[in-house]
Amino acid sequence: MAAFEDNLQRHAVWRGGVPAATAATAVPSGFAALDRELPGGGWPAGALTEILCPGDGLGELQLVMPALAALTAGGRRVAWLAPPHLPYAPALAAAGVRLELLTVVRAPGRRDALWAAEQVLRAASCHALLAWLHDARYAELRRLAVAAQSGTAFVALFRPPGAGREPSPASLRLALEWRQGQLTARIFKRRGAPLAMPLGIPLSRPAHALGRAAFPAPAVAGARARACAA
Q1: Is 38 exposed, middle or buried (0-12, 13-18, 19+ CB in 10 A)?
Q2: Which strands make up the sheet holding 102-106, listed edge to edge?
Q3: 182-205, pLDDT tens digit by residue?
């Protein structure tokens, strides 16, 4: 029996109702209740995570901010790709994110954003990538998933709720909603069984790490995307 149990653990065999083990190192989310429900005890590394959100500023960035703060505290670099608004540096600094380790990448269009995301992942120069990809197709996401598997970065893709009806190669998918004064996460795909009930996330209120000003349209001449340090 001991040998059988050891084989289950080493080969990550899924047992119904139990989050499957994962060989990749996970990045703790900073929320104990959430980490208990995530395979490996945190955000999956070397794989895609999809965070579905009905709008900007719901609390989606607060959900990932503790992980970003921990990564940058260890000297690891974080990239943001095509955020809808200018990052709000005071809120990021207050959350513990080292701004000198944050790179913001602007992309003129969908194909440019996907190309830039793949380059970031294959270069393995960043330990976390946050990307706002609203209308990516399955084949494009599959390319990103393969690129993510080549490294150990935490990759979070912010997408609209309607994307949940489409297939995705992401290993973790969760939908956010602000309900009765609390942010809730419905984990409908993970390595293992989906979470039956929405999970409450202890945020007092949404805090905006993205400012109100939108990015000006980037120039496209001669470049696939432009990067600027936040």
Answers
A1: buried
A2: 199-201, 182-189, 172-179, 47-52, 154-159, 128-132, 78-81, 102-106, 226-229
A3: 899 999 999 888 888 999 998 765
